[in-house]
Specification:
mainly alpha; 6 helices; about 65% helix; about 0% strand; elongated
Length: about 120
């Protein structure tokens, strides 16, 4: 009787310990950008990408490329290697990446709404 109870407890513990991790609450390694840093860099990158397609100064031809200089990594003091390793980490944690992109979309929506009001 007791041996069956012990076996049941051991098997139950094993089953519960093998469950999926809740990756949203997993600590991000120090070698990776925090969610807030990545949100800021990617938001800046999307704004820069959008702005680079607008020729507000009516610059022609080969001068256009050098007229707009956007570098979200440099502006946020982040080197490319850390950004690349961060993107690798977050793509391996899709739930975290989805949360990040949801926050980026929210942030861009707020920026867009402010632009329409002014």
């Amino acid at each position: 009787m007791y041996t069956n109870l012990i076996k049941f407890i051991v098997v139950s513990c094993l089953l519960f310990s093998c469950g999926p991790k809740n990756e949203e609450y997993e600590k991000v390694p120090d070698s990776v950008l925090s969610e807030e840093q990545l949100i800021q860099v990617l938001t800046d990158a999307y704004l820069a990408e959008g702005a680079s397609g607008i020729n507000v100064k009516a610059v022609t031809g080969e001068k256009f490329d050098s007229t707009y200089i956007f570098n979200p990594l440099k502006d946020n003091n982040i080197d490319k290697a850390k950004f690349d390793s961060s993107m690798t980490y977050y793509t391996r944690h899709p739930k975290k990446l989805k949360i990040i992109y949801d926050k980026i979309l929210d942030k861009l929506s707020v920026i867009q709404a402010k632009g329409k009001l002014e």
